[in-house]
């Protein structure tokens, strides 16, 4: 994507800031349907993921969920107009928080917030930044205009501590947590087998970085889910109580438990999960590619 094209996209998104949610959603549905029919490789990835995770569903069920996912992804993009431009009070109303007391409880420090890849992820992250400063991993966008726009959004309130994904410095995350910053961590993408372990995700082995279990053991951190749900009027950030008996000392068992916690929310919000990511890209030795 060229810088000019990115700026045009950003301008279109920002232009919807004063629209009603219904109007913005209708526009997003149209774009989502366009992407569904034109971005064929991503459609195939989504359908493959759904087939692996929900083999008991019919093809029609999986296609319906996948198509709604494309619409929800498009809506999340257009909703960035509010994340970028809406005043603080409006954003507090737009992104409601359930369980905010868990975030502010001093007993929940150090703290890891497990934030799976649901379409409302950025809305939830910005809502946390309204409350306090946090740390997270950041992958630089290839397009500079898009990268600068995303960084401006994230820095609107309490500028987060961004730890670069490239050459990730584990010590930086540990220091931030020991300084009292919650660590907003996205645990559910495939970054290759080298630093991952294979644990089930809906019954299929998935390369998963065991970061949560290891950081919790090193720092003594509490771990809790931070799931952002898209609703008809905005978003709800669900902050659940910290997990009990975690870590257990068994990194593989703890990482499998994390995946089960994510599964629970995926089953609740199946059309809001990022099925377009190749979650099963890495395969155990001797197992053929699924894509």
Please render the helix and strand layout as text.
Layout: H1 3-14, H2 21-38, H3 40-53, H4 59-78, H5 80-85, H6 88-94, E1 95-98, H7 100-104, E2 111-114, H8 121-131, E3 135-138, H9 144-154, E4 161-164, H10 170-178, E5 183-185, E6 197-201, E7 204-208, H11 211-219, E8 222-230, E9 235-239, H12 251-268
Parallel strand pairs: 1-9, 2-5, 2-8, 3-4, 3-5
Antiparallel strand pairs: 6-7, 8-9
Helix pairs in contact: 1-9, 2-4, 3-4, 11-12
Short account of what is shown:
This protein has 291 residues and is of the alpha/beta class. It has twelve helices and nine strands.
What does this structure look like?
This protein has 291 residues and is α/β, with parallel strands linked by helices. It has one domain. The protein is built from 12 helices and 9 strands. Strand 3 (135-138), helix 9 (144-154) and strand 4 (161-164) form a beta-alpha-beta unit. Helix 3 packs across helix 4. The longest helix is centred in the first third of the chain and has 20 residues, at 59-78. The protein is globular. The mean pLDDT is 96.
H-E order:
HHHHHHEHEHEHEHEEEHEEH
Strand order of the largest sheet: 1-9-8-2-5-3-4
Helix-and-strand structural type: alpha/beta
Shape assignment? globular
Strand content: 5-15%
Largest sheet entry: 7 strands, mixed
- In total, how many beta strands? 9
Overall average pLDDT: 96
- Any idea what the radius of gyration is? 19 Å
Q: Ranges with pLDDT <50 over ≥5 residues?
A: none
Report the span from N to C terminus: 25 Å
Number of domains: 1
Number of helices: 12
Q: Helicity range of the residues?
A: 40-55%
């Amino acid at each position: 994507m060229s810088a000019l094209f990115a700026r045009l996209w950003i301008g279109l998104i920002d232009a919807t800031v004063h629209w009603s949610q219904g109007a913005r959603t209708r526009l997003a549905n149209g774009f989502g349907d366009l992407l569904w029919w034109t971005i064929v490789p991503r459609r195939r990835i989504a359908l493959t993921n759904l087939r692996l995770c929900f083999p008991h569903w019919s093809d029609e069920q999986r296609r319906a969920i996948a198509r709604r996912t494309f619409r929800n992804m498009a809506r999340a993009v257009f909703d960035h107009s509010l994340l970028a431009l809406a005043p603080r009070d409006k954003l507090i109303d737009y992104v409601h928080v359930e369980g905010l007391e868990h975030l502010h409880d001093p007993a929940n420090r150090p703290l890891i917030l497990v934030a799976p890849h649901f379409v409302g992820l950025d809305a939830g992250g910005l809502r946390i930044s309204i409350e306090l400063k946090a740390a997270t991993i950041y992958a630089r966008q290839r397009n500079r205009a898009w990268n600068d726009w995303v960084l401006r959004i994230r820095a609107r309130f309490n500028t987060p501590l961004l730890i670069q994904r490239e050459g990730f410095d584990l010590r930086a995350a540990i220091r931030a947590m020991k300084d009292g910053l919650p660590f907003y961590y996205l645990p559910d993408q495939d970054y290759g087998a080298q630093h991952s372990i294979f644990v089930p995700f809906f019954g299929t082995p998935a390369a998963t970085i065991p970061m949560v279990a290891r950081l919790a053991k090193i720092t003594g951190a509490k771990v809790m889910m931070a799931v952002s749900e898209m609703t008809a009027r905005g978003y709800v950030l669900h902050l659940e109580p910290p997990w009990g008996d975690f870590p257990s000392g068994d990194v593989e068992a703890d990482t499998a438990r994390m995946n089960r916690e994510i599964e629970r929310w995926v089953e609740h919000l199946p059309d809001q999960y990022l099925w377009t990511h190749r979650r099963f890209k890495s395969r155990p030795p001797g197992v053929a590619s699924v894509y």
